[in-house]
Amino acid sequence: MSAPAWSALLRDAAARLTAVGIDSPRVDAELLLAHVLGLDRGALLARVFAGAVAEPAQAAAFEALVGRRAAREPVQHLTGVAHFHGLDLAVGPGVFIPRPETELLVETVVADLAARPAAGVVVDLCTGSGAIAAAVAAWGEARGRPLAVTAVELDPTAADWARRNLAPRGVDLRQGDALVACPDLEGRVDVVVSNPPYVPEAEVPAQPEARLDPARALYGGDAPGLRIPRAIAHRAADLLAPGGLFAMEHHETQGPALLSALGADRRFTGVRVHPDLTGRDRFLTARRSCEAAAGAEVEE
Hints:
Blueprint: H1 6-19, H2 25-37, H3 41-49, H4 56-70, H5 75-79, E1 81-84, E2 87-90, H6 103-114, E3 121-125, H7 131-142, E4 148-153, H8 156-166, E5 172-175, E6 189-194, H9 215-218, H10 227-239, E7 240-249, H11 255-263, E8 268-275, E9 281-288
Parallel strand pairs: 3-4, 3-6, 4-5, 6-7
Antiparallel strand pairs: 1-2, 7-9, 8-9
Protein backbone atom coordinates (compact mmCIF):
# COMPACT_ATOMS: atom_id res chain seq x y z
CA MET A 1 0.00 0.00 0.00
CA SER A 2 1.38 3.39 -0.93
CA ALA A 3 1.96 5.97 1.77
CA PRO A 4 -0.92 8.46 2.10
CA ALA A 5 -0.39 12.01 0.90
CA TRP A 6 -0.57 14.66 3.60
CA SER A 7 -3.31 16.36 1.58
CA ALA A 8 -5.46 13.21 1.79
CA LEU A 9 -4.87 12.88 5.52
CA LEU A 10 -5.94 16.48 6.03
CA ARG A 11 -9.00 16.12 3.85
CA ASP A 12 -10.20 13.01 5.66
CA ALA A 13 -9.48 14.50 9.08
CA ALA A 14 -11.35 17.71 8.27
CA ALA A 15 -14.36 15.69 7.14
CA ARG A 16 -14.30 13.69 10.36
CA LEU A 17 -14.09 16.81 12.52
CA THR A 18 -16.82 18.52 10.52
CA ALA A 19 -19.12 15.58 11.18
CA VAL A 20 -18.90 16.08 14.96
CA GLY A 21 -19.44 19.84 14.84
CA ILE A 22 -15.92 21.22 15.21
CA ASP A 23 -15.98 24.93 14.30
CA SER A 24 -12.66 25.03 12.48
CA PRO A 25 -12.09 21.48 11.20
CA ARG A 26 -9.48 22.16 8.51
CA VAL A 27 -7.41 24.49 10.66
CA ASP A 28 -7.50 22.05 13.57
CA ALA A 29 -6.43 19.20 11.29
CA GLU A 30 -3.53 21.29 9.98
CA LEU A 31 -2.43 22.21 13.51
CA LEU A 32 -2.48 18.57 14.59
CA LEU A 33 -0.52 17.35 11.57
CA ALA A 34 2.00 20.16 11.96
CA HIS A 35 2.44 19.12 15.59
CA VAL A 36 3.05 15.48 14.63
CA LEU A 37 5.59 16.48 12.01
CA GLY A 38 7.35 19.12 14.11
CA LEU A 39 6.60 21.89 11.62
CA ASP A 40 4.88 25.22 11.85
CA ARG A 41 1.64 25.50 9.97
CA GLY A 42 3.13 27.54 7.13
CA ALA A 43 5.85 24.98 6.49
CA LEU A 44 3.28 22.21 6.63
CA LEU A 45 1.09 23.83 3.97
CA ALA A 46 4.08 24.42 1.70
CA ARG A 47 4.93 20.72 1.82
CA VAL A 48 1.29 19.70 1.37
CA PHE A 49 1.17 21.69 -1.83
CA ALA A 50 4.40 20.02 -2.92
CA GLY A 51 2.73 16.59 -2.61
CA ALA A 52 4.47 15.29 0.53
CA VAL A 53 3.50 11.83 1.80
CA ALA A 54 3.33 10.54 5.36
CA GLU A 55 5.32 7.75 6.92
CA PRO A 56 3.16 5.08 8.58
CA ALA A 57 4.12 6.16 12.10
CA GLN A 58 3.29 9.77 11.31
CA ALA A 59 -0.08 8.82 9.86
CA ALA A 60 -0.90 6.67 12.90
CA ALA A 61 0.05 9.41 15.35
CA PHE A 62 -2.02 11.93 13.42
CA GLU A 63 -5.06 9.64 13.30
CA ALA A 64 -4.85 9.15 17.06
CA LEU A 65 -4.86 12.91 17.67
CA VAL A 66 -7.73 13.42 15.26
CA GLY A 67 -9.72 10.84 17.21
CA ARG A 68 -9.11 12.70 20.45
CA ARG A 69 -10.05 16.00 18.81
CA ALA A 70 -13.25 14.43 17.49
CA ALA A 71 -14.00 13.50 21.12
CA ARG A 72 -13.78 17.28 21.79
CA GLU A 73 -10.43 17.49 23.51
CA PRO A 74 -9.18 21.03 22.86
CA VAL A 75 -6.61 21.18 20.09
CA GLN A 76 -4.41 23.24 22.44
CA HIS A 77 -4.35 20.36 24.94
CA LEU A 78 -3.31 17.98 22.18
CA THR A 79 -0.49 20.16 20.89
CA GLY A 80 0.41 21.84 24.20
CA VAL A 81 0.36 25.22 22.48
CA ALA A 82 -2.06 28.14 22.27
CA HIS A 83 -1.43 30.82 19.67
CA PHE A 84 -2.07 34.29 21.08
CA HIS A 85 -1.06 37.72 19.79
CA GLY A 86 1.80 36.27 17.75
CA LEU A 87 3.10 34.10 20.58
CA ASP A 88 3.10 30.34 21.13
CA LEU A 89 2.08 29.77 24.75
CA ALA A 90 2.41 26.54 26.72
CA VAL A 91 -1.01 25.38 27.90
CA GLY A 92 -2.72 22.21 29.00
CA PRO A 93 -5.26 20.79 31.44
CA GLY A 94 -5.78 23.02 34.46
CA VAL A 95 -5.34 26.40 32.80
CA PHE A 96 -7.74 28.62 30.87
CA ILE A 97 -7.01 28.59 27.14
CA PRO A 98 -6.62 32.19 25.91
CA ARG A 99 -9.19 33.33 23.36
CA PRO A 100 -8.66 35.48 20.26
CA GLU A 101 -11.04 38.18 21.52
CA THR A 102 -8.70 38.89 24.42
CA GLU A 103 -6.16 40.15 21.88
CA LEU A 104 -8.32 43.30 21.68
CA LEU A 105 -7.53 43.89 25.34
CA VAL A 106 -3.82 43.58 24.60
CA GLU A 107 -4.11 46.03 21.70
CA THR A 108 -5.75 48.58 23.98
CA VAL A 109 -3.00 48.22 26.57
CA VAL A 110 -0.10 48.53 24.14
CA ALA A 111 -1.70 51.54 22.43
CA ASP A 112 -1.76 53.26 25.80
CA LEU A 113 1.83 52.29 26.55
CA ALA A 114 2.96 53.50 23.12
CA ALA A 115 1.64 56.97 23.96
CA ARG A 116 3.66 57.17 27.17
CA PRO A 117 7.13 58.72 27.24
CA ALA A 118 8.46 56.25 29.81
CA ALA A 119 8.73 52.48 29.56
CA GLY A 120 5.75 51.72 31.81
CA VAL A 121 4.73 49.64 34.80
CA VAL A 122 2.05 47.03 34.06
CA VAL A 123 0.16 44.63 36.33
CA ASP A 124 -1.89 41.72 34.94
CA LEU A 125 -4.35 40.42 37.52
CA CYS A 126 -5.69 36.85 37.15
CA THR A 127 -3.04 36.09 34.55
CA GLY A 128 -3.96 32.41 34.00
CA SER A 129 -1.51 31.09 31.40
CA GLY A 130 0.25 34.47 31.39
CA ALA A 131 -1.08 35.27 27.92
CA ILE A 132 -1.74 38.99 28.39
CA ALA A 133 1.42 39.63 30.41
CA ALA A 134 3.55 37.71 27.90
CA ALA A 135 2.04 39.56 24.93
CA VAL A 136 2.56 42.98 26.54
CA ALA A 137 6.13 42.14 27.54
CA ALA A 138 6.87 40.85 24.03
CA TRP A 139 5.48 44.07 22.54
CA GLY A 140 7.86 46.08 24.70
CA GLU A 141 10.83 43.90 23.80
CA ALA A 142 10.12 44.23 20.08
CA ARG A 143 10.19 48.01 20.36
CA GLY A 144 13.21 48.32 22.60
CA ARG A 145 11.00 49.44 25.47
CA PRO A 146 11.41 46.85 28.21
CA LEU A 147 8.44 47.09 30.56
CA ALA A 148 8.16 46.32 34.26
CA VAL A 149 5.42 43.70 34.02
CA THR A 150 4.00 41.88 37.03
CA ALA A 151 1.49 39.04 36.70
CA VAL A 152 -0.64 37.61 39.51
CA GLU A 153 -2.31 34.18 39.61
CA LEU A 154 -3.90 32.40 42.55
CA ASP A 155 -4.32 28.87 41.22
CA PRO A 156 -1.14 26.78 41.58
CA THR A 157 -1.68 24.75 38.40
CA ALA A 158 -2.32 27.84 36.30
CA ALA A 159 0.66 29.55 37.92
CA ASP A 160 2.89 26.67 36.83
CA TRP A 161 1.81 27.18 33.22
CA ALA A 162 2.24 30.95 33.55
CA ARG A 163 5.76 30.46 34.89
CA ARG A 164 6.73 28.59 31.72
CA ASN A 165 5.39 31.38 29.54
CA LEU A 166 6.56 34.36 31.55
CA ALA A 167 10.04 33.44 32.77
CA PRO A 168 11.60 33.91 29.31
CA ARG A 169 10.00 37.38 29.14
CA GLY A 170 11.35 38.60 32.46
CA VAL A 171 7.85 39.03 33.90
CA ASP A 172 7.55 39.05 37.69
CA LEU A 173 5.02 36.29 38.42
CA ARG A 174 3.42 36.39 41.86
CA GLN A 175 1.27 33.51 43.05
CA GLY A 176 -1.48 34.88 45.26
CA ASP A 177 -4.85 36.56 45.50
CA ALA A 178 -5.31 39.27 42.88
CA LEU A 179 -7.71 41.13 45.17
CA VAL A 180 -4.91 42.04 47.58
CA ALA A 181 -1.89 41.69 45.29
CA CYS A 182 1.17 43.89 44.90
CA PRO A 183 0.94 46.20 47.94
CA ASP A 184 4.44 47.41 47.08
CA LEU A 185 3.11 48.82 43.79
CA GLU A 186 0.12 50.75 45.13
CA GLY A 187 -0.20 54.12 43.42
CA ARG A 188 2.70 53.40 41.03
CA VAL A 189 1.20 51.38 38.18
CA ASP A 190 0.62 52.79 34.68
CA VAL A 191 -1.68 50.01 33.43
CA VAL A 192 -3.70 47.39 35.26
CA VAL A 193 -5.16 44.80 32.90
CA SER A 194 -7.27 41.78 33.74
CA ASN A 195 -9.26 38.97 32.18
CA PRO A 196 -10.82 37.78 35.43
CA PRO A 197 -13.37 35.05 36.06
CA TYR A 198 -16.68 36.63 35.05
CA VAL A 199 -19.10 33.99 33.76
CA PRO A 200 -22.53 34.12 35.50
CA GLU A 201 -22.91 31.13 37.80
CA ALA A 202 -25.83 29.53 35.92
CA GLU A 203 -24.23 29.74 32.49
CA VAL A 204 -22.79 26.58 30.96
CA PRO A 205 -20.28 27.20 28.13
CA ALA A 206 -21.80 26.22 24.80
CA GLN A 207 -18.70 24.50 23.42
CA PRO A 208 -17.68 21.19 25.03
CA GLU A 209 -14.03 22.28 24.88
CA ALA A 210 -14.75 25.36 27.00
CA ARG A 211 -16.25 23.16 29.71
CA LEU A 212 -12.77 21.72 30.23
CA ASP A 213 -11.44 25.11 31.32
CA PRO A 214 -11.08 25.20 35.12
CA ALA A 215 -14.20 26.52 36.85
CA ARG A 216 -12.07 28.84 38.99
CA ALA A 217 -11.00 30.65 35.82
CA LEU A 218 -14.56 30.97 34.51
CA TYR A 219 -17.11 31.89 37.14
CA GLY A 220 -17.34 35.37 38.61
CA GLY A 221 -18.38 34.50 42.14
CA ASP A 222 -22.11 35.30 42.19
CA ALA A 223 -25.26 34.90 40.12
CA PRO A 224 -24.48 37.66 37.59
CA GLY A 225 -20.73 36.90 37.65
CA LEU A 226 -19.85 40.38 38.89
CA ARG A 227 -18.34 39.88 42.35
CA ILE A 228 -14.82 39.19 41.15
CA PRO A 229 -14.78 41.80 38.32
CA ARG A 230 -15.97 44.50 40.77
CA ALA A 231 -13.32 43.49 43.28
CA ILE A 232 -10.64 43.52 40.56
CA ALA A 233 -11.69 47.07 39.67
CA HIS A 234 -11.39 48.07 43.31
CA ARG A 235 -7.87 46.66 43.52
CA ALA A 236 -6.92 48.31 40.23
CA ALA A 237 -7.87 51.69 41.64
CA ASP A 238 -5.50 51.08 44.57
CA LEU A 239 -2.63 50.11 42.27
CA LEU A 240 -2.91 52.76 39.56
CA ALA A 241 -1.06 56.03 39.49
CA PRO A 242 -3.16 59.10 38.58
CA GLY A 243 -3.95 58.93 34.88
CA GLY A 244 -3.24 55.19 34.77
CA LEU A 245 -5.31 52.90 32.59
CA PHE A 246 -7.56 50.10 33.80
CA ALA A 247 -8.62 47.59 31.11
CA MET A 248 -10.73 44.54 31.95
CA GLU A 249 -12.54 41.90 29.91
CA HIS A 250 -16.09 41.03 31.00
CA HIS A 251 -19.19 39.08 30.02
CA GLU A 252 -21.30 40.50 27.21
CA THR A 253 -24.19 41.12 29.64
CA GLN A 254 -22.16 42.98 32.27
CA GLY A 255 -21.38 46.29 30.55
CA PRO A 256 -24.22 48.37 32.06
CA ALA A 257 -23.64 47.12 35.61
CA LEU A 258 -19.89 47.75 35.43
CA LEU A 259 -20.39 51.19 33.88
CA SER A 260 -22.64 52.04 36.80
CA ALA A 261 -20.29 50.62 39.43
CA LEU A 262 -17.13 52.28 38.14
CA GLY A 263 -18.95 55.47 37.25
CA ALA A 264 -19.97 55.81 40.91
CA ASP A 265 -16.37 55.50 42.08
CA ARG A 266 -14.60 58.88 42.09
CA ARG A 267 -11.28 57.11 41.67
CA PHE A 268 -12.19 56.37 38.05
CA THR A 269 -12.97 58.64 35.16
CA GLY A 270 -13.73 58.11 31.47
CA VAL A 271 -15.30 54.68 31.96
CA ARG A 272 -16.15 53.08 28.61
CA VAL A 273 -17.34 49.67 27.42
CA HIS A 274 -15.91 48.36 24.14
CA PRO A 275 -17.31 45.73 21.74
CA ASP A 276 -15.54 42.69 20.37
CA LEU A 277 -15.41 41.95 16.65
CA THR A 278 -18.92 40.50 16.77
CA GLY A 279 -20.35 43.69 18.28
CA ARG A 280 -20.88 42.23 21.76
CA ASP A 281 -19.76 44.22 24.81
CA ARG A 282 -16.44 42.63 25.72
CA PHE A 283 -14.18 44.86 27.82
CA LEU A 284 -14.06 48.17 29.61
CA THR A 285 -11.47 50.88 30.09
CA ALA A 286 -11.19 53.63 32.68
CA ARG A 287 -8.63 56.12 33.94
CA ARG A 288 -7.46 56.57 37.51
CA SER A 289 -8.60 60.03 38.46
CA CYS A 290 -6.54 62.46 40.49
CA GLU A 291 -9.21 62.72 43.19
CA ALA A 292 -8.66 61.31 46.62
CA ALA A 293 -10.84 58.24 46.95
CA ALA A 294 -11.96 58.60 50.52
CA GLY A 295 -15.18 56.68 50.93
CA ALA A 296 -15.55 56.03 47.20
CA GLU A 297 -15.30 52.36 46.44
CA VAL A 298 -16.67 50.11 43.71
CA GLU A 299 -20.20 49.09 44.62
CA GLU A 300 -20.59 45.55 45.95
